[in-house]
Amino acid sequence: MNLKTMLAALQGVTAYKDILARPVMERALRLVACAAHGDGLGGLEAYTDLFYQLRVEGFPGLGQWLGDALRWSEGPYPLLAERGDRDPALEQAARLDLSAFALLAGVDCDRWLTQLGRLLDSDYQGVLTGLPRWQAGVPFSFDTLTEAYCREGAGRFARYRAFVWDSGDLIPVAHPDSPDSSQLLGYDEQRAEVERNTRALVEGRAVNNVLLYGESGTGKSATVKHLLTLPGLEELRIIEADKENLGGLPALIRTLDGRRQKFIVFIDDLTFDRDDPTYSILKTILEGGVESRPRNVAVYATSNRRHLVRQTISERAGDEMDRSETIREKTSLADRFGVRVLFQGLDKAGFLALVDLLAAQRGVALPPEELHRQAVAWERFHGAQTPRTALQFVLSL
Q1: In angstroms, rounded to a whole number, what is the distance separating the alpha carbons of residues 321 and 11?
Q2: What is the model's pTM?
Q3: What is the H or E stretch that residue 237 is in?
Q4: How many CA atoms lie within 13 A of 308 on its CB side?
Q5: Residues whose CB falls within 8 Å of the CB of residue 113, separated by 6 or more in sequence, listed in order
């Protein structure tokens, strides 16, 4: 094991430099450097730190960690392969990097501890003997990684399907709340319209932004999240952002241009007050500024208000021309959503039919007349005639 050769190879990594900055690799590089330069105490500390960090991140060995990090890297070579482009110099750099990583992953812990034992006096031999080991092995190769990049994409957008935009950070959601068809109640025509627009987006066609508006509890948000469960939409990604966190989103959207995935920027429960500073940011997101919105990005929003912006009595009074201009300005934002889908509350018959369906699914044994009487009383005191109210009533029985 020529440690100085290994250290030089790792320090010469060029195509996967993003991996060198991660905590596991920082500790691994410190272990190699200390062992190569005769620093036994530093090497011992680096060894225990490396074992700890591997377990913190849930990996039994350095090779498994490297395989995962390489697979989901967003370095220049994975993104090149994802696009199907060629760059001989970058490809050669990636091959050399993977050779260096393979050298590191292939060293078993007994060899590390033997080397550290040569550098430390006899007082440390008992400590070295009792140290835990991680697994050695090289479960990755240039060809298998390249094939995965080409077939399934690279980076976080290949690994995760949902994200939350929070104060300038894009946070992956490993297990998104995506209801399946059995959990959606009614509104089939509305959901079909949203699905049609989304399938056009995934197929690469130019599409409209979508506004889902209407009564609370009708399933507007669930309709958007449900899209991740539909067959044929595997390349769809949803980025959820609060209205208060729209700053920085235009810059993020710019980086999505050219990615193979298709993105919905989802803004839930969108309503603006007068002079809201985020109003102009959303206008830029919807239509772009000097540069247009990328073709693989659409904005979906839900709101309880058709025109998104609250109007006050004072705004409706006064000069006729001023009032007209104010209303046009307020409604112009909603007009930027080319698809507007209305989710109205159910009528009484539809509400009670839904109560019957939910009660049957959950084995409620009340007679129909009594069930309906209680449902009407519940709706009167607890909400509107919506699927949410129907479900809450049945769950209360």
Answers
A1: 69
A2: 0.82
A3: strand 236-241
A4: 27
A5: 47, 128, 129, 131
What letter does residue 71 receive in the DSSP assignment? H
DSSP string of 299-357, one letter each residue: EEEEESSSSSB---HHHHSS-HHHHHHHHHHHHHHHHT-SEEEEEPPP-HHHHHHHHHH
Q: How many Cβ atoms sit within 10 Å of the Cβ of residue 17? A: 12
Give the neighbor-by-neighbor strand order of the sheet with 297-303. 169-173, 162-166, 236-241, 262-267, 297-303, 210-214, 339-343
What are the C-alpha distances in Å from 6 to residues 52, 92, 97, 160? Answer: 22, 18, 11, 33
Pick from 374, 312, 379, 372: nearest CA to 345: 379
Question: In this structure, are strands 297-303 and 262-267 parallel, antiparallel, or unpaired?
Answer: parallel
Q: Distance from CA of residue 240 to its chain's centroid?
A: 8
Tens digit of pLDDT at every position of the chain (397 positions) = 689 999 999 999 999 999 999 999 999 999 999 999 999 999 999 999 999 999 999 999 999 999 999 999 999 999 999 999 999 999 999 999 999 999 999 999 999 999 999 999 989 999 999 999 999 999 999 999 999 999 999 999 999 999 999 888 999 999 998 988 877 877 889 999 999 999 999 999 989 999 999 888 888 999 999 999 999 999 999 999 988 888 888 889 999 998 999 999 999 988 766 566 677 778 777 876 666 789 999 999 998 876 666 554 444 445 554 555 555 555 667 778 889 999 888 788 888 888 888 888 888 888 888 888 888 888 888 777 788 888 888 888 7
- Give the closest residue to 337 by CA, choosing from 296, 308, 294, 304: 308
DSSP collapsed to 3 states, 20-34: HCCHHHHHHHHHHHH
81: Cβ–Cβ under 8 A, 6 or more apart, which residues? 146, 149, 150, 154
Name 351's Cβ contacts closer than 8 Å, sequence gap at least 6.
Answer: 375, 379, 385, 386, 389, 390
For residue 311, CA distances in Å to 38, 87, 272, 275, 317 come to: 73, 56, 9, 11, 11
Question: CA angle 238-332-274, nearest 5°?
Answer: 90
Widest pairwise Cα distance in the chain: 94
- Name beta bridge partners: 169: 166
Please give the Cα distance from 351 to 387 (Å, whole number): 7
| The two three-digit tokens of residue 201, written as one number | 């987006």
